[in-house]
């Protein structure tokens, strides 16, 4: 992107604002489906500001332009915005005002602020409108200026949808819709507009390639007690997909016809998830219909994996484990020879993954972070920021793959050479927290918030902590970040039920020095039945050695050592039949007991 184009684009936006009486316009990073990653046609914030990070909000007034983004992107945003006329607002910094606070000081009372309601959630629009009204401003969510000013705007993706057969999904689309209708009846509503792309994909047993890292299809699904309609661009439908939908009793309409269908909806009630459903849906809905604002029941249904999905996960983890062992075997000698960068690690791992016929791409951008870079949570190497690896310190490798039978997410912190005593101590405390959570036994109905302290306790005793969550759900050949359950400090009441997949990824980050994170994807399963009720445990699905050379055994503890040795025994026995020669010898050495 040529930064010289940015001022002209901002002026084009201001021209639209003047024409429509808007004193400011908020440009979001989201799409019409509240996706984590968005298709190119929804990258308006990137187009108008030049900043291409995954998170950020641009705000343009008639005389100023600002961009808010979090600490992951402050350096990148500073560079990207230079010469564009945008000023960086460091979101999360104590001296940085919120967007609405800044607008309240920048605009005169009575001013109107615009936003595109089709990419702004109902809850977010309500929150902004209320905050702006406190200082005499108003929000208008009926404007998408980029339809007018973005002349070469990409179209909604038209790649073909593909069927995920029952042999892989474990349940027919018709069966899933029947279960959803039962949930709608329990909630006392006649229908639901399913807006989240992963929920549509799961319900319909369709997959696609419309969004980076997420094998989803851009679409809406309107489900009532008697019918279901998929709103999707017709170019995306093959004869096989049409036959699959017909067999599942799912009607088909054009993606853009969803607005007319909402206006004509004749049910008394419809379920909408306010934090995920866009504001435009509410604007187009038949006024005679009562919206019921509740969380989507699909998320909880999708989170509990059936036996076929679980076997698919294990197949994907096997492929991932083989690729990871090959990568680890290659890594240190390659670094010693010299010339290996963070991006080279990503390329080499992708090459090893590609040897498996089920590999379909990455599940998120690989985080290969060496030394001080690893202290930047969710740092991603680029051509402009791509550290040369050396035979000392840690490499943090957080990565995941999409396989047509499952999705993986794994982090290993890898010593490339000599470590300080502080680095070894930090590594051991993080590993001890990982194992403490992995060993947990807990009553049925326990939520992730109740378990989070198990991973943090050893760090807390040293006055240390990490600020990200400890775990998230993982989709089945779907989004790598899946809810509704999470393991984190703030209250997340969704229970960790048998069949749920969840990551276990404590970490520790010392600014300017190093970062450590150790992550396995876990499967919650039934543990035992006692007079006190049902109890659950977690089984590691990830198959990859955890480095033991950095461990201080006396700090890890006997129970944790026993768990780690047993985990490595399982890893070796599972992966060994698929490796040979030096790679097999490497695996044997990496999995030997402490």
Can you walk me through this structure?
The chain is an alpha+beta fold and 594 residues long. It folds into three domains: 5-149, Creatinase/prolidase N-terminal domain (Creatine Amidinohydrolase, Chain A, domain 1), CATH 3.40.350; 162-302, 3-Layer(aba) Sandwich (Creatine Amidinohydrolase, Chain A, domain 1), CATH 3.40.350.10; 307-590, Creatinase/methionine aminopeptidase superfamily (Creatine Amidinohydrolase, Alpha-Beta Complex), CATH 3.90.230.10. The protein contains 20 helices and 28 strands. The strands form nine sheets. Strands 4-3-2-1-5-6 form a six-stranded mixed beta sheet, with helices on both faces. It has a four-stranded mixed beta sheet with strand order 8-10-11-12. Strands 21-28-27-24 form a four-stranded antiparallel beta sheet. Strand 22 and strand 23 form a beta hairpin. Helix 16 packs antiparallel against helix 17. The chain is globular and about 70 Å long. It starts with a helix and ends with a helix. The relative contact order is 0.09. The model has no long low-confidence stretch (mean pLDDT 97).
């Amino acid at each position: 992107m040529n930064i010289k184009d940015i001022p002209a684009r901002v002026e084009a936006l201001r021209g639209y604002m003047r024409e429509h009486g808007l004193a400011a316009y908020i440009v979001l990073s989201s799409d019409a489906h509240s996706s984590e990653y968005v298709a190119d046609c929804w990258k308006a914030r990137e187009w108008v500001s030049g900043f291409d990070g995954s998170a950020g909000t641009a705000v343009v007034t008639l005389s100023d332009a600002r961009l808010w983004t979090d600490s992951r992107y402050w350096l990148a945003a500073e560079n990207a915005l230079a010469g564009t006329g945008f000023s960086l607002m460091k979101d999360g910094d104590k001296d940085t005002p919120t967007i609405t606070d800044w607008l309240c000081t920048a605009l005169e009372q009575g001013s109107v602020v615009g936003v595109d309601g089709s990419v702004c959630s109902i809850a977010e629009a309500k929150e902004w409108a209320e905050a702006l009204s406190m200082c005499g401003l108003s929000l208008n969510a009926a404007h998408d200026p980029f339809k007018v000013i973005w002349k070469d705007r990409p179209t909604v993706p038209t790649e073909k949808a593909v069927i995920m057969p029952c042999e892989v999904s474990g349940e027919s689309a018709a069966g899933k819709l029947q279960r959803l209708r039962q949930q709608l009846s329990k909630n006392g509503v006649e229908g639901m507009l399913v807006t989240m792309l992963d929920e549509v994909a799961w319900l319909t047993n369709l997959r696609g390639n419309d969004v980076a890292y997420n094998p989803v299809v851009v679409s809406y699904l309107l489900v009532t007690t008697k019918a279901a309609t998929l709103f999707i661009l017709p170019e995306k439908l093959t004869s096989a997909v049409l036959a699959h939908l017909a067999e599942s009793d799912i009607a088909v309409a054009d993606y853009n016809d969803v607005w007319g269908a909402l206006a004509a909806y004749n049910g008394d009630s419809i379920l909408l998830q306010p934090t995920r459903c866009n504001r435009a849906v509410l604007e187009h809905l038949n006024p005679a219909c009562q919206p019921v604002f509740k969380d989507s029941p699909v998320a909880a249904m999708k989170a509990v994996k059936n036996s076929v999905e679980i076997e698919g996960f294990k197949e994907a983890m096997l492929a991932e484990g083989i690729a990871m062992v090959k990568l680890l075997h290659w890594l240190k000698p390659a670094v010693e020879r010299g010339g290996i960068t963070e991006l080279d690690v990503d390329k080499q791992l992708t090459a090893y993954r590609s040897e498996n016929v089920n590999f379909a791409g990455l599940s998120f951008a690989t985080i290969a972070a060496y030394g001080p870079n690893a202290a930047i949570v969710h740092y991603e190497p680029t051509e402009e920021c791509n550290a040369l690896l050396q035979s000392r310190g840690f490499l943090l490798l957080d990565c995941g793959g999409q396989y047509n039978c499952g999705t993986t997410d794994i982090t290993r912190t890898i010593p490339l050479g000599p470590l300080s005593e502080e680095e070894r101590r930090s590594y051991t405390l993080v590993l001890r927290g990982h194992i403490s959570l992995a060993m947990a036994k807990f009553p049925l109905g326990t939520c992730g918030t109740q378990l989070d302290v198990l991973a943090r306790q050893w760090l807390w005793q040293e006055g240390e902590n990490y600020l990200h969550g400890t775990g998230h759900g993982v989709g089945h050949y779907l989004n790598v970040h899946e809810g509704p359950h999470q393991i984190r400090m703030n209250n997340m009441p969704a229970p960790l039920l048998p069949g749920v997949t969840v990551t276990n990824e404590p970490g520790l980050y010392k600014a300017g020095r190093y970062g450590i994170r150790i992550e396995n994807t876990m499967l919650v399963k039934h543990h035992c039945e006692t007079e006190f009720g049902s109890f659950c445990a977690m089984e590691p699905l990830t198959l990859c050695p955890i480095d033991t050379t950095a461990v201080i055994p006396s700090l890890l503890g006997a129970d944790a050592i026993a768990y780690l040795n047993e985990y490595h025994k399982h890893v070796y026995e599972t992966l060994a039949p698929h490796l040979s020669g030096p790679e097999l010898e490497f695996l044997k050495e990496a999995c030997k007991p402490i």
